[in-house]
Amino acid sequence: MAKTDTKRFYRRVFTIMIPVLLQNGITNFVNMLDNLMVGRVGTAEMTGVSVSGQLIFVFALCIFGAVSGAGIFGAQFYGKGDEEGVRQTFRFKLLVTTVIAAGACVLFAFAGDPIADLFLRGEGDPSIAAASAEAAHDYLTIMLVSLLPFAWTQCWSSTLRETDRTVLPMVSGFVAMAVNLGLNYVLIFGHFGAPALGVKGAAIATVVSRFVELLVVAVYSRITADKSPFLRGVFRTFRIPGKLALSILARGFPLMLNETLWAAGLTTLNRYYSTRGLDVVAANNVNITFFNVFSVAFLSVGLSVGIILGQMLGAGEADEARAAARRLMKFGIAVSIVVGASYAAISGVVPHLYNTTDAVKATATGLMLICAASMPFESIANVEYFTLRSGGQALITFAFDSGFVWVFSVPTVILLATFTDVSVFTLYGAVQILNVLKCLVGYLFIRSGRWAKNIVNN
User: Fold this and answer.
1) Taking CA 242 as the corner, what is the angle to CA 155 and CA 305, rounded to the nearest 5 degrees?
2) Computed from CA positions of residues 140, 142, 148, 152, in that sequence, does the dihedral angle turn out positive or negative?
3) Which of 319, 272, 325, 277 lies closest to 302 in space, CA to CA?
4) Which of 136, 188, 211, 248 lies 20 to 30 Å (CA to CA) from residue 50?
């Protein structure tokens, strides 16, 4: 590829990647500050919010899977220049995510407490376990209100990104961040005359910020509808052509199911890590919170991969998409090495920001170091996943992602946790080592080139 073409290619990558990185980075940064603030209240409160967060994480990934499955069509319709196709895809997202959010509210309202209790059965002080369970209940109950606005925001933001409007979702994320952070300060600790609500305050702040984010992205995108033609007349009807709906379901449902099962798999792994004691639950919360902030860099590369390759395939540029996939893989690895080194550098400092025990701090540092070492493999698997998904290879993507977790990772941890007394570091490290095998499997899928399919041309 000529030098000019190389510059143009990476300019396109950064045009998509930077706003996504900033939006997700700021969101996760605020979640980190939220977590730190709750962590300053006490270990039980931090543990309770962490457990509730595991359940909300599964929901969020289910929503991500739904919009991503439909988003394959959105990106390819946009690459093809089919405005009506993008509009129908957006409608589909709204309908499906509304159903998912309603179902999640019912599930968490009636079964949230028993599920949360599964994470609090490890060795430790029973009084802390009881206080953690109460905090988890308080946090999750309030957070139910945020599920629907979160789902709708993802519909708007994902479709805007698929149509090259990446700045508006970023701006809405910034506004939501400011609201969340300000309300956290006021409501968690009781500043400016407000009551000190602790975990309830953190939940209320998040709920308000979710509604604000939706309001900003929905209203402003309508005001500037000339830049997003798919929004013209989008609410005149919610009827979707049967053939398109079936096509999205056929390719999108496995991806939605994949995200849900993948998130459930990670939650199951965390549940078995927790068998090594309540200290592990708190320590893993620290690791997960900061990993989410740092991993935004290579996750943004992955999202860019899905959008760029999807648009290329929709435009009939399969050969160019294959070449781009190889270049983006190398780029993602380079980014993850820098991020992993930075994560390792802070591993001895971050745990001491929390008001918790020395045992929790030491465990958190160990988990962070293992996580830092595995980041390049996480990045490779991430790029492979979005590459396979861009061509609508639902079954292969399903087998590669959630299939791998449930066939290899989950059974390995269950066996080690149940029949041995190895430490949480061994359990956690075993999963990271298995990711090497996952990367090799993904490489073989991508090397075949059969993933590069145009799915929107009849």
Assistant:
1) 40
2) negative
3) 325
4) 211
Rounded to 5 degrees, what angle do the CA atoms 50, 55, 56 make?
A: 90
Residue 193 tokens read as 């005359």
pLDDT of residue 99: 94
Question: In whole angstroms, what is the distance from residue 121 CA to residue 258 CA?
Answer: 28
Q: Is 77 exposed, middle or buried (0-12, 13-18, 19+ CB in 10 A)?
A: buried
pLDDT in tens, 286-295: 888 888 788 8
CA angle 121, 267, 95 (to 5 degrees): 130
pTM over 0.90: no
Burial 419-436 (b: 16+ CB within 10 A, else e): eeeeebbebbbbbbebbe
Using alpha carbons, select from 341, 265, 337, 344 the residue that is nearest to residue 301.
337
415: left (phi over 0), alpha (psi -120 to 50) or beta: alpha
Tokens of 337: 């090495």
Amino acid code (one letter) for 175: V
| Residue carrying structure tokens 């999108």 | 252
pLDDT tens digits, 58-69: 888 788 888 887
